[in-house]
Amino acid sequence: MKAVGVIVEYNPFHNGHFYHVEQTRNASSADVVIAVMSGQFLQRGEPALVDKWHRAKMALLGGVDLVIELPYVFSTGNATIFAEGATKLLNAIGCESFAFGSEQGTIEPFLNTLSLLRSEEEEYNALIKQFISTGISYPQSLYLAYEKLKNEHPNTYIDLSQPNNILGYHYIEAVNRFNLSIQPLTIQRVQAGYHDDINTNLTIASATGIRKSIFETKSIHEVESYVPKATFKELESWKHKHTQFTNWDSFWSLLRYAILRNTPEQLSLFADVSEGIEHALIKAARKSDSFAEFMSNIKSKRYTWTRLQRMITHIFTGITKEALHQFDEPTYIRLLGMTGKGQKYLSEHKKSFTLPLISRVASTKDPMLALDIRASEMYAQGVNLISKQKLEMDYQTPPIRL
């Protein structure tokens, strides 16, 4: 059986994701679609709308055959770290190819961009330093240096101001750097942009727009036409059990406690906390009554919103620099769910996987997996502010079988 991979968060799974899965299967001629999916905390440094099991079930009901978890070490990392973990896991589970959505829609400009930045690396780095020295932020300096290089070396390149193009570039760069055998494909993103609000004239909305509508209206009925029926049922199930969906606002009291219980010296030990920001975090936590107010009090030109949220995630989960940075490679494949076809693929191919397959965590001793379990327990603590969720879910929840 031939497998193709997708790298996802499904927060939540929507019509655009359904389209992407269908197009991925067609473009690759694969028998099986395997999704490597972030767990309870996501790449932009925030808790997932619903837990990983609800999102895995949405995926399986939406056309995915196997769902494996992207470990916390990678799922909460920057684009480079996120891409490395995800592509290596898809390679380890035997995918011949993987397909990512992009604003670009064709693979050649990605390869051209990779070639440009590699061949002109010295000039690129010099330009970055030059822009930073003028007071421009690091992400903006990267973009301006890239734009200058593009003008000096005409060709067809990707637009690195677009979020899916950025992630796509990092996927291809990771495959190239680690000499992975998996081949990249890209699917044109249609209708809704990454950050777009819901447009009632369209059938596809961004996950960002869907979440914004849910939190603003406190209802899921406004988003019903933008998600498959199975996703809507899972959202209904979560809302019935937990009364509301999760974000940093719903976790705020626990997050505030996690910050204030530490001294500045202790905060500085957590992953991504640097440059003395621990003092600002404590000051802001003392005087902020909500997460939005807290973020407005610490936001500055030096730090992107995403970088701030990532350090906050690590403080909340209690994961230090030492704990996070001891890992370079995935050490296991964690199975979250499968269809009958996915189960058949596992039976036929698991002996050729280059990492051990984990379906039950109770009998597994792995330091990287221990961080995933801790993150799940802290996510459950946040959910418990609004309703009950067992802390032992990772131990008690078997892989979903459809």
Automatic annotation (TrEMBL):
Gene3D superfamilies: HUPs. It catalyses: cytidine(34) in elongator tRNA(Met) + acetate + ATP = N(4)-acetylcytidine(34) in elongator tRNA(Met) + AMP + diphosphate. One of its GO terms (molecular function) is transferase activity. GO terms for cellular component: cytoplasm. ATP binds at residues 7-20, 101, 164, 189. Its main location: cytoplasm. Catalyzes the formation of N(4)-acetylcytidine (ac(4)C) at the wobble position of elongator tRNA(Met), using acetate and ATP as substrates. First activates an acetate ion to form acetyladenylate (Ac-AMP) and then transfers the acetyl group to tRNA to form ac(4)C34. NCBIfam families: PRK13670.1. Belongs to the TmcAL family. This is tRNA(Met) cytidine acetate ligase.
